[in-house]
Automatic annotation (TrEMBL):
Pfam families cross-referenced by the UniProt entry: Endonuclea_NS_2
N-terminal signal peptide: 1-20
Amino acid composition bias (Low complexity), ranges on this chain: 35-56, 291-308
Annotated source species: Lactococcus lactis
Biased composition (Polar residues): 25-34, 318-332
InterPro entries, sorted: DNA/RNA_non-sp_Endonuclease_sf (IPR044929), Endonuclea_NS_2 (IPR044927)
Ranges where the record places region Disordered: 25-56, 287-332
Full protein name: Deoxyribonuclease
Record keywords: Signal
Domain Type VII secretion system protein EssD-like: 169-262
Lineage: Bacteria, Bacillati, Bacillota, Bacilli, Lactobacillales
């Protein structure tokens, strides 16, 4: 695997790197921009006592760069992300993430428990997302999606259908290349996660859930979810921060830095997520796949949110079984859509149900197929029933 040559340039007391835009042996260099360098903050209150009203304030936030060791560590991350994405690689774990020590948080001084803010960088791209998460938010978000994914800034005009064969699992994903990827997930923030387009970035399917549905961004999310499961009804909180990382003026991030720290300090970690797809070379300026080493690329117009939502649910089985599933329609019973015998609705949280109010938020398949990638829901809510 080729290593992209990089140059260090001193600017305002911290370094930024130059990264190649295309192949792993490219010699082109350009200034690299972090989404966290300069950002305009759009703050919203997610208090459950005032969940229907929120206020926004726009200001400037500058991430401190006085700590040279922090700067060096961040630059190392940029270098590795350039290396892995240019090589069309899943990274050292083969699951589109790696761990990078303890959390490095900033900007949480004014954020109270249950609150969050989403930021745009100085180029209008999705920037740093922060939240002080509570157990009650996690509990309220269970069951099904609490909203519809929003188009992030510079969402590609074309979202091709592709096939990605994962070296970790030797299984193949068939579906859309890109997801509208949460910086802070529905499973932790609920309906608050849908209040700003700056909480979304253009992420490959593998960036979103990895090679086995438990990698990529999902790996970081499950760390927080597992903390809540181990500490039910706790008063502890989790500081959760996601920073998309871009090269220069590119509009698609090369990856994200996810920092997670619980108030009792039993959870304290930084996770780096890689925004790539094995075998696919991506133009991170336009989002267009440049080439594929092993798979054909079918270009299609960018699909509507509901279609993309279905693709965000686990989708790694072969198309033959999915074709059989799609031929069996569900029926309507008032506001509920009821699965046919032997069929279920699979949620993004890997649970399956027999009845749902919004089938577009689920993937419809046979129960036998669902059992290999999901678990039966043990309880329902106003959106879904076991």
């Amino acid at each position: 695997m080729g290593i992209v040559p990089l140059a260090v340039v001193s600017l305002f007391g911290f370094s930024v790197y130059a990264g190649a835009l295309t192949s792993s042996n490219s010699d082109n260099k350009s200034d690299t921009a972090l989404s966290s360098s300069y950002s305009s903050s759009i703050s919203k209150n997610s208090s459950k006592n005032n969940s229907t009203s929120s206020s926004s304030e726009i200001d400037k936030a500058v991430v401190s760069s006085s700590n040279s060791s922090t700067t060096a560590s961040t630059n190392d991350i940029l270098e590795k992300l350039n290396e892995y994405t240019n090589a069309k690689s899943a990274g050292p774990t083969k699951n589109y993430y790696w761990e990078n020590g303890t959390a490095r948080l900033s900007g949480f001084e004014a954020i109270k428990a249950g609150e969050y803010n989403f930021n745009a960088d100085d180029k209008g791209r999705s920037g740093v997302a922060r939240a002080v998460l509570t157990y009650s938010q996690y509990e309220a978000s269970k069951g099904s999606r609490q909203g519809q994914p929003l188009d992030p800034p510079a969402w590609p005009s074309s979202n091709p259908k592709i096939a990605i064969t994962f070296s970790l699992t030797e299984r193949t994903y068939h579906g859309y290349l890109y997801n509208r990827s949460h910086s802070i997930a529905d499973s932790m923030l609920g309906e608050g996660s849908y209040t700003s387009k700056y909480n979304f970035s253009t992420g490959t399917r593998s960036q979103n859930v990895g090679a086995n549905q438990n990698g990529g961004m999902r790996y970081a999310e499950e760390l927080a979810e597992n903390f809540w499961k181990a500490n039910p009804n706790t008063s502890s909180t989790i500081d959760y921060q996601t920073t998309p990382v871009y090269n220069a003026n590119e509009t698609i991030p090369r990856g994200s830095i996810v920092d997670i720290k619980s108030s009792d300090n039993t959870l304290n970690i930084e996770v780096i997520v890689i925004n790539s797809a094995e075998g696919l070379e991506i133009d991170y300026t336009s989002g267009t796949p440049i080439s594929s080493t092993s798979q054909s690329v079918q270009s299609v117009a960018s699909e509507p949110s509901s279609s993309e939502t279905i693709q965000k649910a686990p989708a790694v089985t072969e198309p033959s079984s999915q074709a059989t599933a799609s031929e069996k329609s569900y029926t309507a019973n008032g506001e509920w859509s009821v699965a046919s015998p032997g069929m279920v609705f699979v949620s993004d949280s890997n649970k399956y149900y027999s009845s749902v109010t919004n089938p577009a938020n689920y993937r419809y398949m046979t129960q036998a197929e669902a059992s290999s990638i999901a678990q039966p829901a043990t309880r329902g809510n106003q959106y879904a029933r076991p």
